[in-house]
Design a protein that fits this description.
Blueprint: H1 2-29, H2 33-41, E1 48-53, E2 58-66, E3 69-77, E4 80-87, E5 95-98, E6 101-107, E7 112-114, H3 126-138, H4 145-189, E8 193-194, E9 197-198
Parallel strand pairs: 1-6
Antiparallel strand pairs: 1-2, 2-3, 3-4, 5-6, 6-7, 8-9
Length: 199
Amino acid sequence: MNEVFSSVMFQALYYGVWGALILFFVGAFQRGFFINYFKVRTSFGRLVLVKIRTPLRDYFARGWVEEGFLVYKIKTGFREYDTIRLNIKPGSKPFYKCMSVAWVDVDDEKHAIAETNYNAVTGFDAIKHSQLLTRALQRPTIASGQEKLMMILIVVVGLIALGSLYMAYMSYANVQALNVALPELFRNLAGTVTGGRTL
């Protein structure tokens, strides 16, 4: 029992080390996205994901809204962070939803929040759009190549089954005819001499 437990623990340690290495490399290549996204997602709306745009690369941080300011921390050294506070203009809409969390884009050069533009599209005809949607939903579907191949295979298998049934019926009819004809044939051949022998 002890050997089984030690082998299970060894396997768990082996897979745990590989899993930790994979998460480390994924976090390094994604510039901190994975860990920050996980913490923002589990904060249930208290935090926002800050995408900091620079001329060479983008990186991510966790932020929150505090008294009309966007507050987030950036790493400046080993366990050293600077707190950044950016003013959110009244009436602006800098936040947007993506991957079920709230995002905000920050321009690192201008040290400002990049606003999103949600202007409504003009000229939208709801009745025409509804009619087009109804026509699209009710249009006849065109069978794909796989569906056509399946239909052809079903027809071929059906034809083979019908041919097999016909051949079985013909074989049965021939056997029945032989059962009727053989006794009569043997009676007619009774007493016939063939090769010096009498049947």
